Amino acid sequence: MSHKTNKNDDHIHPLASLFMWTEAKWLKGAMVYILGFAFLAMASVDLFHHRHEYLDYAASTGFYAYAGFGAFVLAVMVGWFVIRGLLGREEDYWDKDAGDD
Amino acid sequence: MTDFLVNISPAWPIIIAGLIAAIIPNSNLRKGLALGAPVLAAILWMSAEHGQHGIIMFGGFELTTFRFDGLSRIWGLVFIIATFLNGLFGLHEKDRVTDAAGLIYSGAALAAVFAGDLLSLFLFWELTAISSVFLIWAARNKAAYRAGLRYLAVHVLSGVLLLTGALIRASETGNWAFEHIGLDSPGGLLIFLAFGIKCAFPFMHNWLQDAYPKATVVGTVILSAFTTKMAVYALARGYAGEDSLIYIGAIMTAFPVFFAVVENDLRKVLSYSVNNQLGFMVVGIGVGTHLALNGVAAHAFADIIFKGLLFMSMGAVLHRVGTVKASELGGLFKSMPLTTIFCIIGAMTISAFPLFSAFVTKSMILAAVAQEHHWLVFGVLIFASAGVLEHSGIKIPYFAFFAHDSGKRVKEAPANMLIAMAIASVLCIFLGIYYVPLYNLLPFQDAVYEPYTFDHVVGQMQLLLGAIFAFAFLLKVGAYPSEKRSINLDTDWFYRRFGDGIVRWAWTMLGRLSASIDNVIARSKTRMGSRLHEVFSPIGSLSRDIPSGVLTIWTSALLAIVMLVAYLAP
Predict the structure, then answer these.
(1) pLDDT, tens digit, for every residue of B289-338?
(2) Could you please report the per-residue DSSP string of B319-351?
(3) Which residue of chain B is at minimal alpha-carbon distance from A18?
(4) pLDDT digit string (tens) for B59-102?
(5) Does B139 fall in a domain?
(6) B255–chain A nearest CA distance, Å
């Protein structure tokens, strides 16, 4: 089982250094801009290249990029407000003694 | 020797190994069986020739236990691979119930895939239900016990529907053949419902999210591989080209996305993800073209491996941390970096990044849908593709291994778990890059598909980057829901609360009715007793002195009646 320790402990796995860059503060702030740039760059490929699709609407410029963004936001909003809002319950809803896990 | 091997279904060594494991107390021997049996099954699979083999007589019926053809071949292989990986993943666990049930269940699913007739299918269909419930009960807690009972009830219902449908169909057609069935007969409809339950169709799906997260660490990994994919195989065999499946599948891809977004239990998130991926396969079966069915077979193959990998990574977290609640995790990459890498590989695969297996499999289904101009369904599948990135591609690795550091410092997963995850990861990448061996296994070799076109790679990367940017954007503006300790009601509310309430009410009413009837009977008895007492007791009316004249008249009358009856009697 786990035990809580301070951040500067000796229990950090040597291979964890592979991911330590993800904790850089500048990266956390800049991530949205980096991804935004990548998103626009990838969407703009359609300006120079016409994709061949079986369905007309899928061939429109930047379709997949905007669909990806829109679908993600829709999924999160519906999940948050509709599912959690209407169907969310306390963790011990099913069984006060046994819990649900 | 070769002729002998050709006749044996690869399922038998696994089922027999499971039966032996059930009686062997030595765990090392059981683990040897868990690894050896799938190897033997693989040898049998490689020795097999196309055709119907393993015909046996059972209760007066002729059963075809081993049909090896284009469709069953690919499912058989991936079931054998999954059995081996599951055996490896569970190598550390010394639980005889899990060892035995896991092998019998895996073997039964494999046998169902190779079944050549509906009766054989039914026998192995039921065996999967009965054996798999022990993987849930092996968790040995109250919630798992109750979930196992619900799971068993649902799956036995599926078996009953299958048998009833098969009987009706056999009476209609005069045989038990398991070929294309269709929905144009009552028997076909019942079998469709039986398959639909195991395939977790909408409103029949919740057994999956109810039971899988409550099984043991190893049990959930085993469960994730077989039942639903066996049902997909059965649908592909019996109902390819049924239009209704296109819309059922489309709903299956979309609705789990919303539930998975706000689910706190990460194994439950993956259970919703199982539904979502099954939806793609069901759509492909509904489209029914050769390209679509190839896509179904290929995606089922890839899905069993990458979904198993994701369940393994969460199993490793559960094994070490003791929970997979997103609200209690975070920062685990510091303790479990290898598990993190494997989880990310699974997440990238399920999201269908180029160079990962789902990219070359799921796209076949999408292409087939677009080719048939199902524009609305195609749109739903695009939504679902972004949705799967949300819950399985980002949420699972992000909340478990990154996000806020929970401060939990644990050991890396056991070596056997890491090796199993490493093999699954290699397969995910290998099949994404060198997909020719997988494509060569597909049932219809006339349907040519090239996944790595510029258009496809660009389109897919646009979709994924759009969704990833949306995640970063929502996180930045504080519009991404935080993980909190809660549950969300699903269709199980209807039988766990509403149905349960009705049964309890009916039981109470029945109790009251019974009490009222008892009361009436008791009162009647009392009344009758007092009447009899009034008549026959020493102080009753019959004890009173009766005048002899009256008695003579009554005696004469009775004698006259007796004589009359005697005279009239033949």
Answers:
(1) 999 999 999 999 999 999 999 999 999 999 999 999 999 999 999 999 99
(2) HHHS--BGGG---GGGT-HHHHHHHHHHHHHHT
(3) B337
(4) 777 888 999 999 999 999 999 999 999 999 999 999 999 999 99
(5) yes
(6) 9
d(CA B489, CA B206): 10
Give the pLDDT score at B416. Answer: 96
Would an 8 Å CB–CB cutoff place A101 in contact with chain B?
Answer: yes
Q: For chain B, what percent of residues have pLDDT higher than 70?
A: 98
In angstroms, the Cα distances linking B356 to B370, B420, B448 are 22, 18, 19
Domain count for chain B, please give it: 3
- Whether residue B214 is found in the same domain as residue B261: no
Give the residue from B483, B508, B542 where a domain finishes: B483
- Are B222 and B254 in a shared domain? no
Helix (H, G, I), strand (E, B) or coil at B244: helix
Buried b (16+ CB within 10 A) or exposed e, B546-567: eeeeeeeeeeeeeeeeeeeeee
How is chain A split into domains, by residue range?
23-87
- Please tell me which residue, A23 or B159, carries the higher pLDDT value: B159
Q: Whose CA is closest to B409, among A41, A2, A13?
A: A2
Q: Please indicate, yes or no, whether residues B209 and B288 belong to a single structural domain of this protein.
A: no
**Among the listed residues B444, B299, B446, B427, the one whose alpha carbon sits nearest the alpha carbon of residue B363:** B299
Separation of alpha carbons B254 and B257, rounded Å: 6
**B4 is written with which tokens?**
């002998």
Look at residue B363 and tell me if it is in a domain: yes
Between the CA of residue B526 and those of B30, B262, B521, B523, what are the distances in Å? 67, 64, 9, 5
Residue B400 tokens read as 């478990």
Looking at the complex, does the CB of residue A30 fall below 8 Å from at least one CB of chain B?
A: no
- How far is Cα A79 from Cα A69, in angstroms, rounded to an integer? 15
Any idea what DSSP says for residue B205?
A: -
B-interface mutation test, from A10, A34, A83, A90, most B Cβ less than 10 A away = A83
B488 inside domain: no
Contacts of B341 in chain A (CB under 8 A): 18
**Domain carrying residue B248:** 240-483
Q: Are residues B198 and B58 in the same domain?
A: yes
Confidence of residue B569 (pLDDT cuts 50, 70, 90): confident
Same domain, yes or no: B509 and B558: yes
Residue B103 token pair: 């092998």
Would you state the pLDDT for residue B555?
A: 84
Domain final residue, candidates B238, B273, B303: B238
Residues B210 and B245 in one domain: no
Is B90 in the same domain as B104?
yes
Q: Give the model confidence (pLDDT) of A20-52 as tens digits.
A: 888 888 888 899 999 999 999 999 999 999 899
Look at residue B490 and tell me if it is in a domain: no
Asked if B104 contacts B85 with a C-beta cutoff of 8 angstroms, the reply is no
Q: At what angle do helices B186-198 and B118-137 cross, to 10 degrees?
A: 30
Q: Among A9-18, B106-115, B442-451, B507-516, which is the least confidently predicted range?
A: A9-18
Average pLDDT, integer, range B458-473:
96
b/e burial code for range A58-93 (CB count within 10 A of at least 16 → b): beeebbbbbbbbbbbbbbbebbbeebbeebbeebeb
CA distance B134 to A71: 39
Residues of B in contact with A43 (CB under 8 A): 462, 466
Summarize the confidence of residues B377-384 as an average pLDDT: 96
| Angstroms from A48 CA to nearest CA on chain B | 12
Task: Clarify whether residues B148 and B40 are in a common domain.
Answer: yes
> How many beta carbons lie within 10 A of that of residue B332, not counting itself?
29
